Amino acid sequence: MSQCEEVDALLAATKVMAGTWEWTDNHRHNERRAEMALTAGGQLTYMRIVIKAFPNHEELKFTIMLVYGVCVWRICHATDTGHLNPLSRPAHLPFGPFDTPHYHPWAENRPASLNAALPKNLKYANFLPAELTDFNACFEWFCTQTNIQIGNGQMPILPLPDRLL
After folding, report:
1. Alpha-carbon distance 83 to 94, whole Å?
2. Residue 33 near residue 21 (C-beta atoms within 8 A)
3. What is the C-alpha R_g of the chain?
4. Measured between alpha carbons, how far is 11 from 146 in angstroms, rounded to an integer?
5. Residue pair 66/72 in contact by the 8 Å Cβ criterion
């Protein structure tokens, strides 16, 4: 089975988070990171959720990623980093540039060839639905889109600022 087929199969499968969230300092200034392994059918997978948070940013800013060696699905909740879809984008996607919260789904970024390598970058994005204005709503939507169950006590809580803005 190719890596693309493995990602397809894992996205279709119901996944369960395995563990607890723990925030660590990331390699960039003012960036915190947490990740959680995922199981499917009671077996640990090579897929995991990674969250990057920016607690000292003046606006709500975070990234939620589904990673399978590389990022295969992502929400970018930020207004200070723009995105521009290529001209070759699927017709239903906006061109841009846009600097609003958006998401990069696997379905739009999946290589056409089963034997192609997984994409290093997710170049196609779409606007997040307007009702997704806070982290909890975005996380729940992300998990619904990617078939991940949120167990009791597994809703992550973004880290609080550690300095005055």
Report:
1. 10
2. no
3. 16
4. 6
5. yes
Q: In 3D, which of 38, 62, 73, 33 has the Cα closest to residue 50?
A: 33
- Rounded alpha-carbon distances, angstroms, from residue 66 to 35, 86, 98, 127, 163: 10, 22, 22, 18, 29
Token pair belonging to 47: 């897929």
- CA dist 108 and 94 (Å) reads 12
Contact status, residue 49 vs residue 33, Cβ threshold 8 Å: no
Q: How many CB atoms lie within 10 A of CB 102?
A: 22
Strands (E), 8-147: 15-18, 24-25, 32-40, 43-53, 62-68, 70-77, 102-104, 126-127
Terminal CA-CA length for the chain: 50
pTM over 0.85: yes
Query: Residue 38 corresponds to which tokens in the numbers above?
Result: 């995922």
pLDDT tens column, 68-114: 999 999 999 998 888 899 888 888 998 878 889 999 999 999 998 88
User: What pLDDT was estimated at residue 163?
Assistant: 66
